[in-house]
UniProtKB/TrEMBL annotation:
This is Transposase. It comes from the Bacteria. It comes from Skermanella stibiiresistens SB22. One of its GO terms (biological process) is DNA transposition. SUPFAM superfamilies: Homeodomain-like (SSF46689). GO terms for molecular function: DNA binding; transposase activity.
């Protein structure tokens, strides 16, 4: 008994299936028509949602291209990394602002008069 070769699908085939699924076609009927497992179509859809069409491998194309000992990520992964780095930068700016505001408020607090007494801030001078 000989082993059956695994089927290889082009990126265009996979994108076509995902587009049809997104257009509202029934996944079971689509899978039967294309001769693939439903789960495979869902896997392709997940990859497209996470990384765009580039995330789908074509025939024999790797997800990342080895360049010596360094692995270069696909463009969609690089874009995601850049987006996350911008988000971290914005969060750091917010954190710095709130830390300065807290130091400012703590510097304005008057020490308590005695044990158990509550410290207070100066009242606004209206």
């Amino acid at each position: 008994m000989s082993k059956e070769e695994p089927r290889v699908f082009s990126r265009d085939f996979k994108l076509g299936a995902v587009r049809r699924l997104e257009a509202g076609e029934n996944v079971s009927a689509l899978a039967r028509e294309l001769g693939v497992a439903r789960q495979l179509i869902h896997t392709w859809r997940k990859r497209v949602l996470e990384g765009g069409p580039e995330a789908l491998r074509g025939k024999g194309q790797p997800h990342a291209v080895p360049l010596g000992s360094v692995v270069v990520a696909p463009a969609s992964a690089q874009a995601r990394v850049a987006e996350l780095e911008r988000m971290i930068g914005r969060q750091q700016v917010d954190l710095d602002f709130f830390q300065r505001a807290l130091r400012h408020i703590e510097g304005r607090r008057q020490p308590s008069v005695g044990l158990g007494a509550t410290a207070s801030t100066k009242s606004s001078e209206r």
